[in-house]
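Predict the holo structure. Ligand: flavin-adenine dinucleotide.
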Amino acid sequence: GKADVTCQMVVLGSGPGGYSAAFRAADLGMETVLIERWPVLGGVCLNVGCIPSKALLHTTAVMEEAQALSAHGIKFAAPKIDLQVLREHKDKVVSKLTTGLGGMAKARKVTVVTGSGRFLDPYHIEVALSDGSGTKIVKFEKAIIAAGSEAVKLPFLPEDPRIVDSTGALELRKIPKKMLVIGGGIIGLEMATVYSALGARLECVEMLDGLMLGADRDLVKVWEKKNAHRFDAIMLETKTVSAAAKKDGIHVTFEGKNAPKDPQVYDMVLVAVGRSPNGKRIDADKAGISVDERGFIAANKQMQTNVAHIYAIGDIAGGPMLAHKAVHEGHVAAESAAGKPSYFDARQIPAVAYTDPEIAWAGLTEAEAKQKGIKFTKAVFPWAASGRAIANGRDEGFTKLMFDVDDHRIIGGGIVGTHAGDLISEVALAVEMGADAVDIAKTIHPHPTLSESIGMAAEVFEGTCTDLP
Ligand code: FAD
């Protein structure tokens, strides 16, 4: 058929999965086109996800740490918050990264087409150009679908600027007095942490019987204790059933175990009830690609869909909706498409809640290990015994490792405490390499660090830990 652009590889969507795939394909010598409907590269993660949320979380964590120094004899005046400057700071962080990506695409001669793409058939994508100048047809030999996901909407909620999803919350238009977070998952609670630090009182409603349900309960408990002061209510096993936007606020009605009888009034409502993949929005059926009911596109270990020359990666391909998973899948898809032996076979995909304290885990959770019937021993090192955690004034955390009782290999681990997200990489590496308790315990960790707690937990398992109080 007719084509405006012809290429060996087209990548649809430029999030962490898409740009990683496009860059790897180009590095491997493929003529690559990257289609993105937004004006800059980086997808959800860079523009309205991982990065802006962490820019804000860093600022608010430092602010709260500074305030906590009053217990050490250092008193600051109450913080004066200039939302406009904070917003600009966050936007600068994002644009530094997206500009960098644009430069990297150019350096690799990846052609970026800015517009919304949909399949016409197994070898053509039509792009409705974002500048309104019409359409372009991209003819390709191979394609990688990396079109990501969008926030799930609750249909009964009215359209009102005071009701936002994570993208709206990141815009930081104003700080509400009273904020309701619908959905007690990581994204909702990260944003709640930011707003709470900036002065909002929080309430949270969650349909299921716990917050951050992917994580082990012992880890979450530590976070709950440290964060109880932020919340006026945490309504578990409760649903939001309707809402009315009125002058004095959003009036929300609840149902379920912990539902208040009367509607409650909030200045802001954050909806964070999950994300849905964009599989149904790209006419994948015209290329013969199977899309499931929810919009996911299944892929094999090479990341191939049912149509062998078309791959799917990232949030749209199922599995944990995480940027680092999307990146690795992107590399696999590009390498496979370029004819290299490559497959996705991760033993572990780490997960992090960048709350305060952070919660991180890698490999199996305790709940998963139990479910699988694996016989394991849990070794815990409480940070109350960590010199560094005590020196930091943040000894509420702990590090736990789980070892197979037969071969003593690590099957997983979890950490709750400051910087847990950075610390978990060592557990990830240990799981990926099949390290056993002696490997970890005999690895000399620097003193005094939080990372020592990982070596110490392995020593607890070995029965050689003498440093516990
Ligand atoms: P996405 O990043 O979703 O990118 C898809 C891209 O495709 C978008 O740019 C979109 O515009 C484009 N697109 C879609 N359809 C079309 C089309 N038809 N034509 C052209 N372009 C199209 N993950 C982490 O690992 N760590 C975190 O700390 C973290 N924090 C998060 C915080 C928030 C608030 C949110 C919302 C998410 C967070 N995530 C985090 C999840 C992470 O953002 C996603 O897992 C990741 O972005 C998925 O990458 P992806 O490449 O699959 O797609």
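The longest helix spans residues 83-107. The CA atoms of residues 133 and 365 lie 51 Å apart.
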